[in-house]
Amino acid sequence: RVLSCGLKDFCAHGGDAAGTAAGDKRVPKIASVVGILGHLASRHAGSIKQELLRMFHESLGSSREHHKATVPFLLQLALMSPTLLATVSPELVDSLKPPVLNQLHQHFSAMPRDELDGVVGVVVHLLCHTSAGALRTLRFLLATAAP
């Protein structure tokens, strides 16, 4: 429920990839969402990880407006919470198989260039600050870039 409310608020306040990349402060509840999830992570890390991954995968196959904002919302959560990033990053890398990568490509192909550049910048920043599963992530990037 916390993630769902956070996503709705993110969408209501114009949360998009460009806002995420710029660290937009217009989304007032996201700090509360991060705080609540951080508190819950000590006892419910598995459930939180499962829900974050479910939201990610569900959003890729949908053209509904709030699903378009899900990936930028999740990126913003990861930027604000190293704990959430560390919780989900190893499993996320494992789930990035060719069909999912194709869905990501389709999901972002209609995005304006400046917003797409912002998303790429956020992803690169997160990759540089991820210690959990860093070797696995590097191997994935090398294998994907040069199969």
UniProtKB/TrEMBL annotation:
Coiled coil: none annotated. Pfam families: INTS5_C (PF14838). One of its GO terms (biological process) is snRNA 3'-end processing. GO terms for cellular component: integrator complex. Residues 29-145 form the Integrator complex subunit 5 C-terminal domain. This is INT5 protein. It comes from Rhagologus leucostigma. The gene is Ints5_0.
